[in-house]
Design goal:
The structure holds two protein chains of two kinds. Chain A has 20 helices and 18 strands. By secondary structure, chain A is an alpha/beta fold. Chain A has two domains: about 1-205, Peroxisomal Thiolase, Chain A, domain 1; about 220-610, 3-Layer(aba) Sandwich (Peroxisomal Thiolase, Chain A, domain 1), CATH 3.40.47.10. The longest helix of chain A has 17 residues, at about 285-300. Chain A starts with 8 loop residues before the first strand and ends with a strand. Chain B is α/β, with parallel strands linked by helices. Helix content of chain B is about 35%, strand content about 20%. Chain B has helices spanning about 45-50, 55-70, 90-100, 110, 120-125, 140-155, 170-180, 235-250, 270-280, 290-295, 300-315, and strands spanning about 5-10, 30, 80, 130-135, 160-170, 190, 205-215, 225-230, 260-265, 290, 335-340, 345-350. In chain B, helix 2 packs across helix 5 (about 120-125). Chain B is globular, with a radius of gyration of 19 Å. Classes of the chains: A alpha/beta, B alpha/beta. The interface between A and B is large, with 74 and 66 residues.
């Protein structure tokens, strides 16, 4: 009766090996425990399970029981099944040898009854059944190696003969310090994370080889912080968007010949004012001070309970480090290389800025800096997310900062891509960009940390991709290859279709070349159904290494509150594309997924997708 | 999953690029600055580009291409570089002209090539490689951050054949400034005897060292890359010792299992105190080797240390010039590299024979 043979799926998996716990192929916990006993206890504590029987179990049972807990958590709708329809089929090579030997040692003194009861391998299946009230078929097979073919055949047979509706099967082995657990949940119903129940899939999961595309733990945005020309925090920036107040104007802070000629988007505070607000000395880089303000806002906003006990990282980005101070150093230095205040050049490196901000935040578990030109902080955000996904950190403050410097202003000026008027992104008559300054950070947290938050997270970071245009050091390819690949890759990572995107926060610098390439890439990917798009650089200017961070903050707010930001000064649609950017601030929109683009020199293109929870 | 070093290539102040002799005739310098020995760049870069490229770009591109050639891989799955200072020569050149010309009539080339991601970008451009491309710029752990990124990409099954490199150039200007900042010795020294003199400061260095990481077994693999870990501002030497022990424990190893420890000793009195203390405690019973007398001190010098370790494992021999004291004659199978940067950033890397 072949019509009764239904398809079966692996709907969840858990592998525990080498001090690491993998759920659906992703590391969800790892530590440095000195031995297996301590490691199993830290797994128990990490997943915050309250089950006092755990401590009585032998190591084999602890391992199998923990694997089943991780396997079933959030992945198994127990109520859908009758207790007698859920079965367990386990296997290993050495049965309960580990405990048998320990029992043997105890016999020489006084035989331990608590050890004796665990001298059968099937006690582990019993422990799992007691915990979950499973009453279906259960069996424990002894075979030399994990035999995926046997498991597939045996379990399929039970399903096809209607002897069970759901099955936990796999391998639980533990002898001394050697251990491995690999459990699979088999069900008849497909879900978005399931793969077919075949021996190939079992083997791949067993060896941690294949990570099914969609099986990735979620990363949440728990807090945001921003400072830019349109506001000194997130609330002020939103007010500026709503009233359509651009932050672009004359240069007032820097001493340069371009004053009154090239408009820029300055943060309104002087260095002395920033120093007073941050409590830092006024002679450090402006980039550091901007970073401290935004990163602190983000961390305070997230208000993560018990932060001190979590593994916290700071991943920042910038393009020219403490260049504003190096400029001051070089004037006397060039006249006489024994002159120039060393204090001014000491923090020239990009990493110095990050380090100084991290010290102000009190973060030391992991800090690093990325510099990929104008996509820098978009990359730092998704590197941070991956550190959490790989089980290395629980919380990451990620983003970037860049202050205006004469170096970058003159650099962009030599490339003749600065507009002498206020920039007009995605307008047919655009003339170039206006430089800006600021900092933007998001606080990324794991699902476990997200559950402890008092306030709901803003959104999830669901997709990301970094691709290279590989066309020219500074110019974008005419068909926007890099941008296209980045957007497409981010959609794939998020498992979304272009039609799912509710709004695109464009890179949209306002240069003829960028907007044409980006517009073409959007057209290639989205035609004929274009989501609303806009470039917030028409408000903030192009903040270089900070732009990905600042726009991530705006994107998170857009998802949470249903905002679409206006693209200021837009008049004429670009010839090469059939769409125009949004020109009015809109709220109360249904925004499910926001794509944020950041593209830079060196062909570095990165797209991020933020999604509603 | 296992991660292997498929191939490596190094432009350094030693004759490392051709990979023929293995530090048997070490280059000797008298001074406080070691400059990279330039290979014939025309083998890797066309003449027009060579003229335009700064030293660090040439070193990086040649080293990256040589590394790919050795593995017989045309297109890497990702390109990741680490550099603390980036493209210093172009940066200083643009800055100098900007000040001297008072912001007028500036040519754009130096600015264009001054961004920190230029080396990784130029490699992508020459290979027409559209894959993942990133650059880490975090002081003494720039290279280690790039390595960690590569390890994660392999774990995530996002890419294979990942090109990872550490690059740094030492220019006249940066040498002058870093000397004023006290990084280098005040008097010229023989690089091969910096560990015998007790004085402040190290010697400056530079280079570009690339590796191709893969999760596939291959007879040509140099070594298995077990892992990398960094830590920031340890509170005491005891914390450093604990971190080292815990790092090894992750791989079910203790220090007794390690055949050779390669340290980042650099001849600076204060800097080397950390290593001296460890040599009395956690490293007291292991064979020790050093490398910064060969490549000089620079923020991504640990990439030279990793190159050394991978080649020691593959060749089964320890060059006499790197040996600190005496080394067990058996070919090392497990090598730990421990480096620190001003006692602020510390890094551990573990390699084993395949």
């Amino acid at each position: 009766m072949p019509d009764l043979i239904s398809k079966k799926y692996i709907t969840s998996s858990c592998v525990i090996n080498h001090n690491t716990v993998y759920k659906n192929g992703i590391s969800v916990f790892a530590d440095n425990s000195p031995d297996v006993a301590n490691f199993l206890i830290s797994v128990y504590k990490h997943f915050d399970i309250n089950y006092s029987r755990f401590y009585k179990m032998d190591n084999l049972s602890k391992l199998g029981w923990l694997a089943s807990e991780v396997l079933l958590k959030d992945s198994f709708a127990k109520d859908r099944y009758k207790p007698e329809d859920v079965g367990l089929i386990f296997s290993n090579a050495n049965a309960s040898l580990d405990t048998d030997l320990k029992y043997l040692v105890s016999v020489e003194d006084i035989a331990s009854p608590s050890l004796f009861v665990y001298t059968l391998p099937n006690i582990v299946t019993g422990e799992i059944c007691i915990r979950n009230n499973f009453k279906g078929e259960d069996a424990f097979f002894i075979c030399e190696h994990f035999n995926a073919e046997f498991i597939e055949n045996y379990v399929s047979n039970l399903f096809d003969n209607n002897l069970m509706q759901a099955c936990i099967c796999g391998w639980i082995e533990l002898t001394g310090e050697d251990y491995k657990a690999a459990l699979f949940l088999i069900e008849k119903n497909e879900n978005d994370k399931s793969v077919s129940f075949t021996k190939e899939q079992l083997n791949m999961i067993f060896d941690n080889k294949e990570m099914p595309l969609t099986n990735s733990p979620d990363i949440y945005v728990a807090g945001i912080g921003v400072i830019s020309a349109i506001g000194n925090n997130a609330a002020e920036c939103l007010t500026a968007f709503e009233s359509e107040n651009s932050g672009i104007g004359d240069i007032t802070h820097m001493q340069t010949i371009h004053r009154n000629n090239l408009p820029v988007a300055e943060v309104k505070f002087t260095n002395d004012e920033l120093a007073e607000m941050t409590g830092l000395p006024a002679d450090i880089s402006r980039t550091t001070m901007l970073g401290v303000l935004a990163a602190k806002e983000a961390l305070n906003d997230a208000a993560i309970p018990g932060l001190a006990s979590l593994r916290v990282g700071f991943i920042s980005a910038n393009t020219v480090g403490g260049m504003d101070k190096s400029e001051a150093f070089f004037v006397p230095f060039l006249a006489d290389n024994k002159k120039g205040k060393l204090r001014n050049v000491f923090d020239h490196e990009c990493g110095s800025v990050t380090e100084a901000i991290a010290d102000q935040l009190g973060i030391k578990d992991y800090i690093t800096t990325i510099s990929t030109a104008c996509s820098s902080s978009a990359n730092s955000i998704f590197y941070g997310a991956r550190l959490i996904k790989n089980g290395l950190l629980d919380v990451v403050v990620a983003g970037g900062a860049d202050a205006l410097t004469k170096f970058t202003l003159n650099g962009f000026n030599t490339l003749m891509i600065l507009d002498k008027d206020f920039c007009r992104p995605f307008d047919e008559n655009r003339q170039g960009l206006n430089l800006g300054e600021g900092a933007g950070y998001v606080v990324l947290v794991s699902e476990k940390v997200a559950q402890t938050l008092k306030n709901d997270p803003y959104c999830k970071l669901s997709g990301y991709n970094n691709s290279n245009d590989a066309y020219h050091q500074t110019a974008s390819s005419p068909d926007g290859t890099g941008s296209y690949l980045a957007m497409k890759g981010a959609l794939k990572k998020a498992n979304l279709q272009p039609s799912n995107i509710s709004y695109i926060n464009l890179h949209g610098t306002g240069t003829p070349n960028n907007d044409s390439a980006e517009g073409t890439a959007v057209k290639r990917l989205f035609d004929p159904h274009y989501p609303p798009v806009s470039s917030t650089k028409s408000f903030t200017g192009h903040t270089l290494g900070a732009s990905g961070g600042i726009e991530a903050v705006f994107s998170a707010l857009a998802v949470k509150h249903g905002f679409i930001y206006p693209n200021l000064r837009f008049e004429t649609r670009m010839n090469e594309v059939p769409f125009s950017p949004e020109t009015k601030f809109q709220k109360g929109k249904q925004i499910d997924h926001v794509m944020s683009n950041s593209f830079g020199f060196g062909g570095n293109c990165t797209s991020l997708i933020f999604s509603k929870i | 999953m296992k991660i292997y070093i498929r191939s490596s290539a190094a432009v350094s102040p030693q004759n490392t690029f051709e990979n023929i002799e293995f530090l048997t005739e070490p280059a000797e310098y008298y001074g406080t600055r070691l400059s990279a020995i330039d290979p014939d760049y025309s083998q890797f870069i066309d003449a027009k580009s060579i003229r335009r490229m700064s030293h660090v770009i040439k070193m990086g591109v040649a080293s990256a291409k040589n590394c790919l050639n050795r593995a017989n891989v045309e297109m890497p799955g990702a390109i990741i570089t680490g550099t603390a200072f980036g493209c210093l020569d172009d940066t200083v050149s643009f800055l100098t002209r900007m000040i001297e010309m008072e912001e007028e009539m500036l040519p754009p080339t130096a600015f264009i090539q001054s961004t920190h991601n230029t080396v990784a970008a130029q490699i992508a451009l020459l290979l027409k490689c559209h894959n993942y491309n990133s650059t880490f710029v975090h002081k003494g752990i720039s290279f280690e951050s790039a390595l960690l990124d590569a390890v994660m990409l392999l774990n995530e099954n996002e890419a294979d054949n990942i090109l990872v490199g550490g690059t740094e150039e030492l220019t006249d200007t940066s040498f002058t400034i870093l000397t004023r900042l006290g990084l280098y010795k005040r008097w010229p020294v023989d690089n091969l005897s910096i560990f015998n003199t007790q004085s402040k400061g190290s010697i400056g260095g530079e280079g570009a060292v690339f590796f191709l990481l893969s999760d596939k077994e291959n007879a040509g693999n140099l070594a298995e890359f077990k892992g990398v870990q960094t830590f920031y501002k340890p509170e005491s030497i005891e914390e450093v010792e604990k971190r080292i022990t815990l790092f090894l424990k992750q791989y079910n190893l203790s220090i007794e299992d390690i055949d050779l420890v390669i340290t980042g000793k650099n001849g600076d009195l204060k800097n080397d105190t950390v290593y001296d203390q460890l040599n009395q405690s956690v490293f007291s019973n292991v064979s020790l080797a050093n490398f910064k007398h060969l490549c000089g001190e620079y923020p991504t010098a640990s990439s030279f240390g990793l190159w050394l370790a991978a080649n020691i494992i593959k060749r089964g021999e320890v060059p006499a010039v790197v040996i600190e004291d005496e080394v067990n004659t058996d070919p090392p199978k497990k090598i730990l590299i421990y480096n620190h940067y001003f006692n602020t950033y510390h890094s551990l890397m573990l390699l084993t024979a395949c």
